[in-house]
Known about the structure:
The structure is a homodimer.
Chain A: H1 3-22, H2 29-36, H3 40-46, H4 50-71, H5 80-94, H6 105-113, H7 118-144, H8 154-175, H9 179-193
Helix pairs in contact in A: 1-2, 1-4, 4-7, 5-9, 6-7, 7-8, 8-9
Chain A binds a DNA duplex (30 and 30 nucleotides) through helix 1 and helix 3.
Amino acid sequence: MSKAANTRLTILQKAFELIYSKGYQTTSIDDIIATTQVTKGAFYYHFKTKDEMGVAIIEEILRPTMLESFIKPVENSANPIEDFYNMISYLLLDDPFLQVKYGCPVGNLTQEMTPWNNQFSKALTELVDQWKITIEKAVANAQKSGLIRKDVNGEQVAYFIMSGYWGIRNFGKLQDNNSCYIVYLKEFRNYLNSLK
Amino acid sequence: MSKAANTRLTILQKAFELIYSKGYQTTSIDDIIATTQVTKGAFYYHFKTKDEMGVAIIEEILRPTMLESFIKPVENSANPIEDFYNMISYLLLDDPFLQVKYGCPVGNLTQEMTPWNNQFSKALTELVDQWKITIEKAVANAQKSGLIRKDVNGEQVAYFIMSGYWGIRNFGKLQDNNSCYIVYLKEFRNYLNSLK
DNA sequence: GCTGTTTCATACTAATTGGTATTTTTTATG
DNA sequence: CATAAAAAATACCAATTAGTATGAAACAGC
Lengths: 196, 196
């Protein structure tokens, strides 16, 4: 990787960490250049505005990790019920990229940016839609193989799973404690079994 | 109500509307005094800091409406399954206090303020805990009267319902469209029936 | 109607914000 | 090594931020 591409990536990564922990609005350019040791000139050479950098974070940092942790685990799944559970369980309890007290990066940005920045909304919607479609496909496959009842509606299940995940992440954040995740996962297991 | 108490309430109400639609950080004191037509002197007479006003909003604006829409509908409920559904349905589709594109005020503040303001977290936790306890009690009652299975865990159900609500509100916000609420409610109905 | 307290108005400040203009350094290519 | 372009460094700016200092009305009880 060229040196220039490297500073660009450093900015994105460090800025993401700051934004994930502090929020987008409260992370200033000065914050970013202070922690990255990159000068303002370099920053604005790589990004026209702060918002352009924000969108780049979604597309170049969040999207790949989302693909790895949210899409791959259930893509072409032979046993979606089990894989849904494992995916959510991993995300809540094990994923080293995510921290209890900071919640879900995608959820955070949605809450903060959606009402007044269309570019953010669009980029976030793409991520979320991809997850939704993956879940729907997995449900359809499981219905073919008889692991999930035929009268189950894939879109409903997708929304239900995703919203539950987003919501409980908010609780973890509020309480700064993952014990609510344990309780949640038990009921999530019950719900998944009800689809059989 | 005295004139002074009235200006105080006006500040809280208008500030809440601004914060609900724009976010806490991006709502400035100048914004608030501009829309309330109250001077800065008056504002700082009633509130020592912006954060003190924020906490007051949670306790004096959010708490009462929460009690009305989140607690009362399921308190002492004779048929919790039905009342759970009606409560969530009302909140998502009918409550005039809430708007699709702005999400859930409590959820918004949690996301935005929790990582770096303890007072907010504490005030929000109180609200949320009250809701949780109410749901748990309703489940216990329904188990006594045979409307919900004895092996169902009230705390798990409470977390599951609340997190689903918070999460789907995030989707509505992202899409600025309540059609996801319709889909969600169908699956929510299925889930509730699985408790019988 | 006098007086003290409550309530509000005005003018200000120091710090921070995102962004720009300009210059300097680094790098690739002939 | 010369040169042009890419990349980064420096110094600045206008606007906005939460909060303050100080004084003026409004209002109470006597």
